Amino acid sequence: MEQTAQSKSRYGMVIDLDRCTGCGVCMVACAVENNVAPAEQKATERTGVTWLRVYPVSNGEGFPANDSVFIPMTCQQCGNHTPCVSVCPQNAVEVDPSTGIVGQIPQRCLGCRYCMTACPYHARYFDWWDPQWPEGTEALLNPDVAPRMRGVAEKCNFCHGRLHAARTKAAAAGRKEIAAGDYVPACVESCPSRAIVFGDLADETNEVSRLSRSINTFQFLPKLGTAPKIFYHSAKEWVRKMADRAPLA
Amino acid sequence: MQNATETTAVLIAISEREKRPMNITRRELLTFAGGSILGALFTPIPWKLLDDSAIWTQNWSLIPRLPRGPETFTFTGCTLCPGGCAVKARRVNGHPVSLVGVAGHSLSNGILCPMGIAGHHLAYHPLRLRRPFAFTGKGADSPLVPSTLDEIASNLAPMLKDIRSSSSKGTIAVLDQRPGRVLSDLYRKFVSNFPGGIYAVAPGSEDPTLTTLRALCNTTEGTLGYDLENTRVILSFGAPLVDGWSTPGRTVKLLQNRNQNGLKLIQVEGVQSRTALQADTWLPIMPGTEAALALAIGGVIVRQNLFPAKIEKTSPDFHTYKTLVSKFEPEDVAAVCGIPSSVISETAHALASNPSVVMSGYDPAGGPLDSATETVIAGLNVLLGNIGRTGGISLHPPIPSPGATTSPAVGLAQVPDHSVRLLLIDGAESGHTYPLSLLKRKLTADGGTVVMLSPYLSSRSALADYLVPSPAAFESLEEISTPPGARRSSFALSLPLLKQPDTTVDPATLLAKLAGASGLPSVGAETVESCLRQRAHDIWLSKRGTLATPTGSSQTPVMAMASEEELWKGLSEGGWWVDNMQDKQVNPRLTLLGLMTPDRYDKASAPALDTTGTLKLIPFGWRNATMTASVAPVLSKLFQESHLRSLGGRVHINPSTLAANALSDGAYVKISTHSGNMTAQAVADPSVIPGVIHAIVGPSPNNTASKDRPEAEGILGLCAVRDDGSWRITEATIAKA
Amino acid sequence: MQFNHAVHTGEQNGMTCDMCHEFTENGSFKGIPTIAKCTECHSAAIGSTESEKVLVEQFVTPHKEIPWKVYSRQPDNAYFPHAAHVKRAEIKCEECHGPHGSSNTLPVYQVNRISGYSRDIWGRNISGLPSHPWEGMKMDRCVRCHAERHRDDSCLDCHK
Description:
heterotrimer; A: about 250 residues; alpha+beta; Alpha-Beta Plaits; two-stranded antiparallel ribbon; 7 helices; B: N-terminal domain of TfIIb; Rossmann fold; 5 domains; eight-stranded mixed β-sheet; 28 strands; globular
């Protein structure tokens, strides 16, 4: 089974910031899908684990000229000189050549947190505590994603559990390629406004590729040259201008 | 000879040495140790030990084991709020591991809110009640002791019998937080057996504009709804259409398709909420001046003859209304409420020249606007001729229920003060909360006796004497009745995903026990399931409506169903029944002001408060997230683990107001009202209008709420409850804590 | 209770592996069959062995699941899709599981006390070197076979 150049995918997203209402269902769906435990008692926004985090950002004007936008920020799946990959002493994170997904393996991580320093998008999180699941909820965990112990870094892997399920389904049907509709990350599926569009950027004809090239679509911190595969869209100029400034957190 | 001597010397040395104890040198020891370590590296021992212990760390008890087993998908519905969204549950070994919306579902459009997505965790909330409890005394500090249903019933028996004979010392009341269910009817029947028995509905359980319109339209038959699918302009006075209003899938879908359907949303709100951000126009109004704005808009419509001509003839109080609105010129009102007069005029024109609806919204923690304001907001619908019109307010038949009682229902605010001796609070939440003082004043002077039916220990339990655990979310067969504001009546079942603990109590069973204790014959149904079967029976007999599969893949008219069992089976597989009967005729004599007299609006044109001195304390909440017990622990992602939603105990204040009071962002402030004071953390927020304390009523951080005591009420305890039952704005001062 | 594979797969009954060890519709592997599967034939005793008597009396009749111990259980973080290997790569069951299907008795399940997994994962030999080609299933064996088949792998292909 040779993986030819044509079969290489580059999964990415386009997030429409004008559609995002900031409800937060994507964050909860992500935590439920990926078995991210509820906050430890002492946790704060600095020590919490949210693979996808929606940041409320204001234009800095006074009332009523104040305008806000909600920015879902997840691992940007950097394609060029991926910062976290280049610093990890353990090779616990690597870029999958066939999907472009930057995959974090927490079981290999030794917890140095160098990757968290390297990530310009603050998209990586550290398990400061062992997962504390309320009694009884262990039976409700998603069997497709392994839980993590304390002391390791973790981040969004574009719902690898769902990619596995899509591949298994394709294999059962004798197909090599997965059906696009079978692989939908939890955040994409749960968004009420359909603000997140997900797909294979390598396929020039599909919706995500078209949207990534459309007007008013931008990336965050483009000057760093990380080539992120998450694109954002907004008709508001102040939102687009913000993309080149310092990170949100 | 020399050899012999040497040999002898050596032999002597050896024998001497053998007589001495073993004398191992340090070097020998170290050599041995170093050698064995080096040697061990060549054995499998260290490598295997390393590997085994690495695997051991991946399986130790500090991390959970994943469930294994067959995967199935089942359909159900969410009952966390009256919105009633369809749910597709992914189950492993029968346990739900994830919930998603059902794509293709006609009412919820594949959408679930954040609470619904984690709804399967709620049964395991740390504050979940699994067995009945009695409080040892009144007040939030008295501890809980375990009890049983029979014990509670026998404790209450003397009081129940006493009330049955006379209500002179107070009567019995049921507070229903989710009216419209068949269980609601059971409550009504139960209290009608007692003299003066009261069936009350909780604040926030019904749409405020539609409730007001019911009075204005003098309608007792039929259910009012919004025909949002055909409307073109929505003027919303703070209704959180994007963030917790009726069924989320309904409004979100309409708003996201504005390019195609031409819908315009005008949001009137004193804070740039999520709905205000998504609206086409945001009118940043000074809270408390909504009546003035509504009357100014009405004034433009009347003066410029933008209303249907017949209204002048059919509305008995048209001329009173016309005189009233003449006092609310847009230029004057603009100074009061902060909305330019041109905008007021444009809004009036937009409403009049398009199919439109005007609505106000309960804030999940702030409650309704005062009744005078609600009346003139609802009255705009009457003025515009929206009632009974396509794209306006619909009057459609309710779910068929021929056996339903006609005993009266009152809002909690209308219950006479100090009249309730025994109060039963139903466990289904509306997603909205209210000050305990509103409830407390309805109880007799000694505090009355309160039986709270609830799956969770919440702040509302502080008034309770007995806690009876109803089943938690997704644990029992429940009803999904018509959502508030829906265009047509609907009915579905919420099928359980989890096993209900034996010690939880079915609400109908509790009623049956209380009926028995009071010497009454049975109330009719002993379980919720039998109530639901009765409702399905009534629907089938009526031959009305269609039953659709959850994904909408097929629809079967009820009249084509051969048997009642076919309907029940379809419902038990997650099917949704939607009515198809024609709308009812609207009473043409619609009043514009209802019971309100013009003098009620004298103060509506008063100037707004300035930013120093007294501020307006306005509680603010997110539906279903006003109490710690109402959100699954994993919602901490939105609250304490990020800045997306504010925890309870924070107050958002405009930076200019903070500066005017010599306070800084993040400072702890003491908020004082006539009812008391408390400390909260101030957040500088430019999206809040100056002069307002936008106080968040929300959950506390995980694991900090006590399991033995109901958590404190927080800012709602400071709110002043008016005679009409509203508590939206309270005068307050702030100072550094 | 002993289970005799050979009786089921041999000439007498001629069953194949996938008659009991089935796949579901969406491709996931059911693994060791549930008591429902055994009940399909053994609702009453059809043979005369002591093991079958135990099966029928203690498990089939009261609908109780047999608490099988799994030799091939991998840690939770390993993802192994049978569908991709059996259906697409067409690897025979014996290649990984050995001649299990023609065995007369089940080998004794021995557990590694430190890691908690079956001793078969490392292999019976302490050195880790397999005495039979199907012995041992540590990550290096998976990686070696993948390399032989020229698969362009990444960590998340096999890890959850």
